[in-house]
Amino acid sequence: LDEFEKETGKKPAPFGVNLIVHNTNPRVRADLKICIKHKVPIVITSLGAVSRLVDAVHSYGGLVFHDIVKKRHAEKATEAGVDGLILVAAGAGGHAGTINPMALISEIKSFFNKTVILSGCISNGRDVASALQMGADLAYMGTRFINTKESRAPEDYKQMIIDSSATDIVYTAAVSGVPASFLRPSLESMGITEEMWGRKAKMDFGKELDAAQAEAKAWSTIWSAGQGVTSISDDLPVQELVDRITNEFKESIKEQSKLLDKY
Q1: In the chain, what are the domains?
Q2: Given this model, what pLDDT does residue 263 score?
Q3: Which residues of the chain have pLDDT under 50?
Q4: Which UniProt key words apply to this protein (predicted)?
Q5: What is the pLDDT of residue 176?
């Protein structure tokens, strides 16, 4: 980012860094120090809401958004002082939840009055408009941006997303010890077949995040995606995707506004 600014004279857009705050992750302190050193504007935390971390990010003016899948997690994150909650609803990629997004938004907004961000199966501008209609302040996309030209995801990964449907997403704790969504062909190619999906692996993010320690592991050799794959059929530059999402969003809002004349 420093090189980008030197070469172009432009300030980079606000960016975020994900931190897994689970006690089995030995990297979290070192990663946090780097975030503080470079004043990362947005820190996204998961699997642990720690007030000391929130205070550290707030000390330089950064924001902390925390992943949650249920009310209990949201309450703990609220106590820790986070600036926003990312509601990881049913069907999302990664460490997803099982609660319908409408129910989850309603439950969280009943006590949380800061930024609410919805994730899960959001793949186009119509989905973004729907998220805002449900009461979210922001929509959060993951899987859709894997299939972009700037993404470093392997081409086989991108093609698997294009070839998959919602029923090809497997929700299992057999990989990381935490329930997460993975592409069925990816699991099967690494020998994790259907009879194993009900198992729960030992949770160890130190091992999971160390490329030298495991051959079959989440995020690198076993590929994650959400049920939103069902509407992904291409691989295009980020700018084109963002422009398309923006146009779809505007058109969807226009269509929704027409409903006012009917009721």
Answers
A1: 2-142 (3.20.20.70)
A2: 84
A3: 209, 211-212
A4: Flavoprotein, FMN, Monooxygenase, Oxidoreductase
A5: 81
Let me know the angle formed at the C-alpha of 45 by 50 and 136, rounded to the nearest 5 degrees.
115
Backbone angle region of 100, left / alpha / beta, with phi > 0 → left and psi within -120 to 50 → alpha? beta
Residue 87: both structure tokens together: 């509601």
Residue 133 identity (one-letter amino acid): Q
